[in-house]
Amino acid sequence: MTRLLIVDDDADVRRMLSEYLAGHGFEVEAAGNGAAMREALSKQAAHVVLLDVGLPGEDGIALARFLRERYDVGIIMVTAAGGVVDRIVGLEVGADDYIAKPFDPRELLARIKSVLRRTEGVAREAVAAPAAAQRPRIGRCTLDLKSRQLFDGDGNDVSITAMEFDLLKTFAEHPNQVLTRDRLLTLTRNRQWEPFDRSIDIRIARLRRKVELDPENPLAIRTVRSAGYMYVPSD
To answer: Would the CA dihedral through 192, 193, 198, 202 be positive or negative?
Structure first.
């Protein structure tokens, strides 16, 4: 049975969501803070963690970073209605999706199912792909699709967020193809996002600093003027 972990300091919210999601066939556990979350995960892993940003003490952003560094788990951030910064930061530290309060439980259920489809799809593709295809070389680094890790030329782990991994994986699956910003957002998130501001450009710039020998003159992830970006494998 798919297991969900709800992390929210509001007991009424925990109870309401637990009852609703359990009624849709999930195994649900709830925690009121970071310490309770860690204890729950130490006993049994979860498939998706629903994580409130506004927790007292150790907030949801810090906990999302902790989760992404240690667990292969889907993360959905719960933010305030106007918390645009929280949403962006949450995605940067590795959250898979977000939902703003107040929300309809039906929308939450749809987002949980979407995250599960993405994470299960990654696992299926990793099993099906040949060993060499699971470790494409991108610039000076190697991307391990199975472990979702990036390694430099010396074999050292290079820290990347979930969104950065999704971008690198998408580039590796579409070599020598021009991908527009909208197309990149669609491929990496499996749903249409609003292509607001130039956030994709910021993520690409950060990736280049990690994978390119010379980030100012990128050879692996190239800009195609007025079109988008293209991944060019090295010979």
So the answer is: negative
- In this structure, are residues 76 and 51 in contact, taking their beta carbons and an 8 Å threshold? yes
Does this model's pTM top 0.70? My answer is no
Counted residue by residue, the chain has a size of: 235
Residue type, 85: V
Q: Provide Rg for the chain, Cα atoms.
A: 18
Tens of pLDDT along 139-162?
Answer: 999 999 888 899 998 889 999 988
- Residue 163's closest CA among 225, 87, 228, 100? 87
Closest to 77 measured CA to CA, from 46, 59, 53? 53
**Nearest-angstrom CA–CA distance, 75 and 130:** 28
pLDDT tens for residues 190-221? 444 444 446 788 889 999 999 999 999 999 99
Distance CA 1, CA 115 (A): 16
